[in-house]
Amino acid sequence: MEPTERTKLLSRIFLTALMALLAWGVFVVMQPFLDALITAVILTISFQPAYSMVHRRIPNSSAAALVCIVLLLVVILVPMVFLITTVVGDLRDLYRTMAEQSRNEGGWSEYFNQLVESPVRWLSQRTGMQAPELKAAMLQKAEQWSAGALKWLTSIFGNLAATLGNLIFTLFVMFFLFQSGEVFERRLIQYLPMEERRLRHLLEVLRNAIVTNLYGMVIVSLLQGSLVGIAFAIAGLHSPVFWGLVAAFTSLIPLVGTALVWVPGVIVLLLGGSYGMAVFLAVWGAVVVGFADNIARPLILRKGIEMSTLALFLALMGGVQVFGLIGLFAGPVIFTAAYVVMKILHEERMEWEGRAPAVVAAGDSPSAETAPPPEVDPED
Predict the structure, then answer these.
(1) 229 and 180 in one domain?
(2) Running DSSP on this structure, what letter comes out for residue 237?
(3) Which contiguous run of DSSP H or E holds residue 109?
(4) pTM exceeds 0.90 for this model
(5) Is the CA virtual torsion 49, 53, 59, 61 positive or negative?
(6) Angle, nearest 10°, between helix axes 160-191 and 61-105?
(7) Going by C-beta distance under 8 Å and a sequence separation of 6 or more, which residues neighbour residue 42?
(8) Are 327 and 205 contained in the same domain?
(9) How many independent structural domains does the chain possess?
(10) Angle at 170 between CA 164 and CA 172, to 5 degrees
(11) One domain for residues 180 and 246
């Protein structure tokens, strides 16, 4: 028995509802790994040219994907190991220096009092507050900052296992995306109910948005790191090149960014009595380095993404607020997808409206080919 039109319609409605329910179930199952999955997609798309180059020399797709994963690990881990070992060495040297000076001054308490004596006197002269009150306030703030830093470090080491697990999952997904990415794309084009040329255009635009965003993020990070390094060199702080590299990495952290580097530099200058340089570094970090993040990033991204500067700015800020670091990619990609889909809908509407009047515009009266058949008199 052949199904009726009503049965076919009910079947489509049921399958659509079932598909929506199953899609929600897949999202719930994958939600714990969503950040790692998005990161894997971003890195795979960005390093696809490198994989293609390796694949031309290594015909086996699995071997080529494995080589790319190893190269990516080297690119990520070598700078991280260098930074960690350098930071640990600098902190060890700083502790030894401060411990030696504190012994010469009669202990940590006396050393701290002498260290803050000059800034307290300078602030007391300009604010009218008594020196003991200022010293107590500074000690209270130092205790709060120390507790916050300890809590932050504890959370970092506490989440180390989760971070390592996400990294392994990301690399695992990247391996299969490198290996079977073209198959996934073909199936996506085959199954989605959308015209192939328009779907390919949408995928290409999203791919360009992701690649442009990644390269823009790298350029802005290097720019901010260079600006911080230059400021440290001008202010006479220790190891400006190294701290410029650290600032380039911390610029990827949402909201705080390079302030994790230049704010401690301002504090060191204040404690050392270099008030002019402290003001210079604070203004440089807040204005010049901040300009590179809030202004230069949208300008760079706008060259590869079809979107206004204001929309890009909102996409970046909103994406970071909602998704965290991944929002630097997710925000612009979502905005870009919405813009392209809106253009596709507009094009389809224009095509539909262009076809409908075409029949009427053929002439004031319908032609013989389009005229309706003559009515037949039943009496004939």
Answers:
(1) no
(2) -
(3) helix 108-127
(4) no
(5) negative
(6) 150
(7) 210, 214, 329
(8) yes
(9) 2
(10) 105
(11) no
